[in-house]
From TrEMBL:
Gene that this polypeptide is encoded by: pyrF
Record-annotated Orotidine 5'-phosphate decarboxylase domain positions: 17-255
Name of the featured protein: Orotidine 5'-phosphate decarboxylase
Biological processes annotated in GO: 'de novo' pyrimidine nucleobase biosynthetic process; 'de novo' UMP biosynthetic process
Pathway the protein contributes to: Pyrimidine metabolism; UMP biosynthesis via de novo pathway; UMP from orotate: step 2/2
Family per record: Belongs to the OMP decarboxylase family. Type 2 subfamily.
EC number: 4.1.1.23
Length: 271
């Protein structure tokens, strides 16, 4: 199945719009994992195993693995998800953006080396920098649109021909780039008004929404602004509040409880 097909199935099967972001910081790991050579894989695998029935996808952030020389552990983690939970897609959060020839290599890295189901991409170098990812029609390409960080307004809120830049990005992707139906957009939960505007522009296109949990985004406002028909259309990411819910050897149990609470809170406002 394509990424979009798998995502739609996971929304239904797990009754969940929750995405658990896997941002492993070894300094925050429980004591029994400290110093172990495969600690990142073991930590993330335990989180995955504890929460797989509560999520619509997982989203490992590549920087946390690369900074710790743990790319092999990232590869093993994605393989574990696919082998053990084949109905749960994996979004590799890398926010790639470069000229076409370099983008071709990034696409090979994400989709062939790591076997990710989708990748986050920066669209600000234009369509030719995105085409190499779109050449994999079974994969998801999730493009930055209105990000959750405060500085996002420095550029994304600029006026461009009578509309905001993020609106232009949403419009051009929905109208001209999404010919294979594999695109999604990143829109932060910290800006529910902009989520509503993007939803108005792009119809039922999936929106990856960071910013709840530690960043303080409002779940009810996010759902009211961004849900699509049938109460789907959103991939609502929560990372630190789930990953580090527990400090001891039972950390995965604590993460499951936090993920279940997050999913149930989201579902409260879906219909």
């Amino acid at each position: 199945m394509t990424f979009i097909d798998t995502l739609n199935a996971a929304w239904r099967k797990n009754n969940s719009l929750l995405c658990v972001g896997l941002d492993p910081d070894p300094a925050k790991f429980p004591a029994h994992l400290q110093g172990k050579p495969d600690a990142i894989f073991e930590f993330c695998r335990n989180i995955v195993d504890a929460t797989s029935d509560l999520v619509c996808c997982f989203k490992p952030q590549i920087a946390y693995f690369a900074a710790n020389h743990a790319e092999d552990q990232l590869q093993a983690l994605i393989a574990h998800v696919h082998a053990t939970y084949p109905g749960v897609p994996v979004i590799l959060d890398a926010k790639r953006g470069d000229i076409g020839s370099t983008a071709e290599q990034y696409a090979i890295e994400a989709f062939e080396r790591y076997q990710a189901d989708a990748l986050t991409v920066n669209p600000y170098m234009g369509k030719d920098s995105v085409d190499p990812y779109l050449a994999y029609p079974d994969k998801g390409v999730i493009l930055l649109c209105r990000t959750s960080n405060p500085g996002g307004s420095d550029l994304q809120f600029l006026d461009v021909g009578g509309k905001k830049l993020y609106e232009h990005v949403a419009d051009i992707i929905a109208r001209d780039w999404n010919t294979t139906g594999q695109c999604g957009l990143v829109v932060g939960a910290t800006f529910p008004g902009e989520i509503a505007r993007v939803r108005e522009i792009v119809g039922d296109m999936p929106l990856l929404v960071p910013g709840i949990g530690a960043q303080g985004g409002d779940v009810e406002a996010t759902l009211n602004a961004g849900k699509a028909a049938g109460g789907t259309g959103l991939i609502i990411n929560n990372s630190r509040a789930i990953l580090y819910a527990g400090k001891g050897e039972d950390f995965a149990d604590a993460s499951r409880l936090a993920a279940q609470a997050s999913r149930d809170l989201i579902n409260r406002y879906r219909n």
